[in-house]
Write a structure and sequence with these properties.
CATH superfamily of the largest domain: Response regulator
Strand content: 15-25%
Order of helices and strands: EHEHEHEHEHEEEEHEHHEEE
Number of helices: 8
Strand order of the largest sheet: 2-1-3-4-5
Largest sheet: 5 strands, parallel
Shape: elongated
Number of domains: 2
Radius of gyration: 18 Å
CATH architecture of the largest domain: 3-Layer(aba) Sandwich
Distance between the termini: 36 Å
Length: 233
């Protein structure tokens, strides 16, 4: 059997076109046309990936994404007719793994699906926990512990912080972070990184005097380790 893809799209023509192309590529495809049914179908069987439209009846794509992210980190690609940077960034902030702007070529959607699925297939032996003073980033369990308290963190924020903290004092450009954290050629705006860093700072800033998320003006960002030792496992 092929990988299971849940497609949530209320436009009959678009959903059937997606079904036809994905089935041809060997995927098992389930179609639903509103947000509430999407949550029900997800709960019946967790798919390998969700293609999720934003403008949906009953419950919109933002709400569906938020509901799913309460219990699962299943890959989500959002479909939107809006091309504004805000809408793209909002989807990523909500925990989506990628987005595709309508109208789109089916070859692009299939390429993005394959890329996101490749990213999700991380071998268990690469999963690690990185710890510093009052900070623990568990990529295996997708948990962020700050000063002894578990902080709800979208997957991309946690992956970004883990990536920076795994190589303390190394400076990354925005494009490097997009390539290495998102794991494929990213077609969006590099300001996405700025937004994620801003939200991470709201969670971890001034927690410890031994480390900090730093902006390197004109270059990018780094996890600055001032003193103390890293404990990783």
């Amino acid at each position: 059997m092929g990988r299971d893809i849940l497609v949530v799209e209320d436009d009959y023509n678009i959903s059937n076109l997606i079904y036809m192309y994905l089935a041809k590529e060997g995927f098992d495809v389930r179609l639903v046309s509103d947000g509430a049914k999407a949550v029900e179908e997800f709960q019946k069987k967790i798919p390998d990936l969700i293609v999720l439209d934003i403008m949906l009846p009953v419950m919109d794509g933002w709400a569906v994404c938020a509901r799913i992210r309460e219990t699962s980190k299943v890959p989500i690609i959002m479909l939107t007719a809006k091309s504004e940077v805000f809408d793209r960034i909002h989807g990523l902030e909500m925990g989506a793994d990628d987005y595709v702007v309508k109208p789109f070529e089916m070859k692009e959607l299939i390429a993005r699906i394959n890329a996101v699925l490749r990213r999700s297939e991380i071998p268990n032996d690469t999963s690690k926990t990185v710890s510093y003073d009052k900070l623990t980033i568990n990529r295996d369990a997708y948990e962020l512990i700050v000063d002894g308290e578990k902080i709800d963190t979208p997957p991309k924020e946690l992956e970004l912080l883990y990536h920076l903290a795994s190589t303390p004092n190394k400076v990354y450009t925005r494009n490097q972070l997009l390539d290495e954290v998102w794991g494929f050629d990213y077609f969006g705006d590099s300001r996405t990184v700025d937004v994620h860093i801003k939200r991470l700072r709201e969670k971890v800033e001034n927690v410890s005097d031994q480390w900090a998320l730093r902006t390197v003006w004109g270059v990018g960002y780094k996890f600055e380790l001032k003193s103390g030792k890293q404990a990783a496992k």
